[in-house]
Amino acid sequence: MPYISLSLFAILWLIFSGVYEPLTLSFGVVSVIIVTAINSFLMMSSDSKASFSYKKFFVSYLPWILKEIVVSGIKTSSAVLGFRKFKSNAKKIKASQRTPLGILIYGNSITLTPGTVTIEVDQGNLFVHALCNNSLNELEVGEMNKRVSYLEK
Fold first, then answer.
1. How far from 105 is each of 3, 75, 117, 147, CA to CA, in Å?
2. What is the C-alpha separation between 20 and 7, in angstroms, rounded?
3. Helix (H) or strand (E) holding 1
């Protein structure tokens, strides 16, 4: 696995860099090795009790979260531009995920949607700040929570 990551990071670095001078290439080699080492260090252990479905992530979750990002961006923009009234608020939201990766995806998904940010994660609860109260209400309904939990099965 580290060899695949190393190769992929090196190819991506070469493509995105576009500079092929010796000093720049040496910086690229060092950065790719560091990123690969960090990536290998942070990989989840294989003895996790729950599995994560990448197929479900790409087929069902990714299109849904992209749609939510666009819809939330429109709502947040209309609130900021003054077309809608808003009142910011913060609340603890219960997370039903069983793995640290599931909670990470849930918290990052909340932060990715415009107008909301996950401030703290504490024992299965996420402290979330939202620009609009209806964003918190949508999180309390739990559609995103259910979809992320579905990825763990």
1. 26, 22, 13, 10
2. 17
3. none
